[in-house]
Design brief:
Two copies of one chain form a homodimer.
Chain A: E1 22-25, H1 26-33, H2 39-43, E2 48-51, H3 58-72, E3 80-86, H4 97-101, E4 117-119, H5 124-136, E5 145-150, H6 168-192, E6 205-208, H7 213-230, H8 241-244, H9 256-265, H10 267-273, H11 279-284, H12 291-302, H13 305-308, E7 312-319, E8 323-330, H14 336-342, H15 344-349, E9 352-354, H16 356-369, E10 389-394, E11 400-404
Parallel strand pairs in A: 1-9, 3-4, 3-5, 6-7
Antiparallel strand pairs in A: 1-2, 7-8, 10-11
The structure holds coenzyme A (COA) (2 copies).
Residues 36-39, 42-44, 156, 166, 168-169, 171-172, 175, 211, 318, 320 of chain A line the site of one coenzyme A.
Chain lengths: 405, 405
């Protein structure tokens, strides 16, 4: 047994991501859906959307990313003492995704792995990360590593109770309100940690949960509005002070003028602190629990490791319902190995573009067969990245079989 | 802000339980179901089964028990820094039960509470407890208390994909296999902690997850079989040594003779170490995540606090899928206040006995209306314990309203 000396710098040592190989172009989708040109690409800020067919489900996706993670970083399954899955995608009503993942550990003989699934909409992965870090920081830690998996298959559908029912406009305000309170709490924590007059200036990068990237642009402006409320007479707000000096958090949730003003005012800081983290979100779409970590992966993939050294990265995680947190950490040590293993840009470019009508067919197939027993998926295995776990059959007891492509 | 001095003796300070007021008698149910007399009462070891009608769901049940907990122990909602729910009962496909519970915190102004839901069949509550303890033992701890909720509505139904599909005999072997490995791991931990030749003798009480109490009788015998394998020539096994000296863990999962022999051999130790913890299980039925904690509550309700002082209590938690743990702790300090607040025996006796056919009607009502929108429950509010949250309506967006009776 490893003797556990108390670890320094508990944090994220390695990251792997996975997204499906097929995508639909958002401007093509605008035409196909008959909405005005620019609605998805400018209005929502999305370029491409990755999606999977009936060959993949939440279990296969998690199997894929865990297996690739272990292989790329050359980690032995025996080294893992905690495995935690944050997801809101449910196949089995009671078996956890973590249990399915344990099949990967079987060969190593390691059956003693703490942790299960945590769920709260898109917040689950963050909670899983917190649990893993706290485990490592507690007497329960046995010296082994923790692996956190945040995975989901995001589908919005209407008139179908199988998918989460979304009240869009309400969910958007809820996101902003949660951001306000999470930011206030975060500033208090910085203050308690000795940071004087904490504000947006106190962090170098700010990564947001992104349902679509336009929401993040708004969220960033909202952060600046929060700073404004704490220090309205600062010179940077001179232009807008008179117009918004009476506003409060509560009065302003539907104030479009205010929203626009703070988006404009925050533009250059947004470019410096947040825009690079939206690479994956803009090109893949909403990833629920994975979204904020894809943001982190995008940042690491876009900014050179040397530039990131000692920088404070804050993450805003939000899950409808709602649960939200802002937390931050500092970059300690080289992250260029993570960037090269992620190989994000190349992998994004290596996808297959599918027409909107093919996309629609695949979505209806998935919807109509979603809960089927005795089902054999029909999606082409050739349209998967190499090393992708995929579903081969579902038997009459709903048991699913997977294979590696 | 409270300055958090590192806590000693992290553990369970207070317990509250809740079960519905209606029950069906198991010997009456035998007659009604046309099974042989004794099958449920002797074969499965169950006397009564509590159940709820369409007035209650997982949210109302958790609201009830949290509200009663806070009131009985006079805890302010502001004192809670972590709230964690272990459950496998899903209403909302993405919103966590924890989010619903936060409505109880609203009045106090405490919106900063870590933790969400953890899920893995009946194991969720244990994982929630571990997370809470590790939080308290880590730098993330902010000096406040953690509240762990383990709640479920257990229903086994056939031909309905809404409920977990159970392969009974397989799940029973899986339980025993998980017990074997959890016990081996536990013994290793005791050894690492300096206990010499750890065995059943090393623990004073052993509380099991109980799908039905007969399974626990078998599980207890199985623990003795594990001890036998480690030390077969000990005098206590003299009678059976020759018969079972060739057996291994794997060879014996279907060996009924062996099962019976070890049940017989363990009878008196079972009575001393486990039987008292089955009070609630025998009288309420399977409680999924709550089961093992109801076991602990039963033990505290049955054995005087003075007798429990300094004793080591081990808990076996199991969730299909599977995830399982054995862990133990020592009783430090008076627990008679918990026992009197639980008031378990009196509350069990204060229930309403319902006939099997009434029971069946209520079950089919619940099944047929389980996913309804725009629904008004019809169950009688008078048949609830005072202080029970109950459902008053579900609107067209599936939003549920609750009231306190
Ligand atoms: C986000 C959502 C509410 C948008 O609603 P909608 O009615 O489809 O779209 P809207 O008409 O409001 O248009 C969205 C934006 O695109 C803009 N837009 C529309 N057409 C446009 C065009 N042709 N060119 C440029 N912009 C355009 C709109 O002005 C609007 O901008 P605004 O957000 O600054 O007001 C909807 O997509 C939704 O429900 N999404 C899922 C919910 C979600 O993700 N919530 C977040 C949970 S974390
Ligand atoms: C447990 C389960 C498999 C029992 O299956 P079953 O076919 O209904 O019942 P059985 O015929 O096996 O009878 C159960 C026991 O009662 C005994 N029994 C049956 N009739 C009896 C009678 N009249 N008097 C006394 N004992 C009787 C049987 O001998 C058997 O004993 P055994 O377990 O020692 O072999 C079934 O109830 C089930 O699927 N339960 C849900 C699954 C579950 O809870 N799993 C645990 C997950 S943690």
């Amino acid at each position: 047994m490893t003797v556990a000396t108390h670890p320094q710098n508990i944090g994220i040592q390695a990251i792997e991501v996975y997204f499906p190989k097929k995508f639909v172009d958002q401007s093509e989708l605008e035409k196909h859906d008959g909405v005005s040109s620019g609605k998805y690409t400018i209005g929502l800020g999305q370029e491409k959307m990755s999606f999977c067919d009936d060959r993949e489900d939440i279990v296969s996706i998690c199997l894929t990313v865990v297996q690739q993670f272990m292989q790329k970083y050359n980690v032995d399954y025996k080294q893992i003492g905690r495995l935690e899955v944050g997801t809101e995608t449910i196949i089995d009503k009671s078996k956890s995704t973590k249990s399915f993942l344990m099949s990967l550990f079987a060969e190593s003989g390691n059956h003693s792995v703490e942790g299960i699934d945590t769920t709260n909409a898109c917040y689950g992965g963050t909670s899983a990360l917190f649990n893993a870090c706290q485990w490592m920081d507690s007497k329960a830690w046995d010296g082994r590593l923790a692996l956190v998996v945040a995975g989901d298959i995001a589908v919005y559908a209407s008139g179908n109770a199988q998918f989460p029912t979304v009240d869009g406009p309400l969910s958007v305000i809820s996101y902003i309100r949660a951001l306000d309170y999470a930011y206030l709490d975060y500033l208090k924590k910085l203050e308690n940690a000795g940071v004087e007059s904490p504000s947006l200036d106190s962090v170098d990068y700010l990564v947001f949960h992104s349902p679509y990237t336009k929401q993040v642009v708004k969220a960033f402006g909202r952060i600046l509005f929060n700073d404004f409320l704490r220090n309205p007479t600062a010179p940077q707000y001179a232009e807008i002070y008179t117009q918004f000096s009476e506003e409060t958090l509560e009065s302003s949730y539907n104030n479009k003028l205010l929203e626009k003003a703070f988006i404009n005012l925050s533009k250059s800081v947004f470019t410096a602190k947040t825009n690079t983290s939206l690479l994956a979100a803009r090109n893949i779409g909403n990833m629920y629990t994975g979204s904020v970590f894809f943001g982190l992966a995008s940042l690491i993939s876009s900014v050179p490791s040397s530039e990131l050294q000692g920088k404070r990265i804050a993450l805003f995680s939000y899950g409808s319902g709602c649960a939200a947190s802002i937390y931050s950490f500092k970059v300690v040590g080289d992250v260029s190995d993570i960037a090269s293993k992620l190989d994000l840009v190349a992998r994004l470019n290596d996808r297959i573009c599918v027409t909107p009508s093919q996309f629609e067919n695949i979505m209806s197939l998935r919807e109509s067969t979603h809960n089927n027993a005795e089902y054999s998926p029909t999606g082409s295995v050739d349209e998967l990245f190499p090393g992708t776990y995929h579903l081969t059959s579902i038997d009459s007891m709903y048991r699913r079989k997977y294979e590696l492509s």
